[in-house]
Request: fold
Amino acid sequence: MEHDEALQLAATFLAASQRDDEPPLAIDTERVRENNGLLIVPYNSVQYRASRDVREQLLDCWPILVGLERGDVRFGTLEERHLWRNASN
Reply:
């Protein structure tokens, strides 16, 4: 699967999973990385993305993971944290 196609799947997944009581969310395209066959797609509030002010940052946003082989899309888990902490550029 191409990078752009995987990113679009992540955007669709994020939009579908957003709750009404959450601030508007957006993918942090500057920080998207690949690691271990996964596209690691971080996201955060639109306000944080615009300002990068840590007071606007949502602290518990686990990235969206897209399997590049099959296109599986899901949120990352605590056990997978090493994947995005050590992701290659």
About this structure: Strands lie at 25-27, 33-35, 38-41, 43-45, 64-67, 73-75. Residues 3-77 form one domain. The helical segments are 3-17, 46-51, 81-85. Residues 3 and 39 are 8 Å apart (CA to CA).
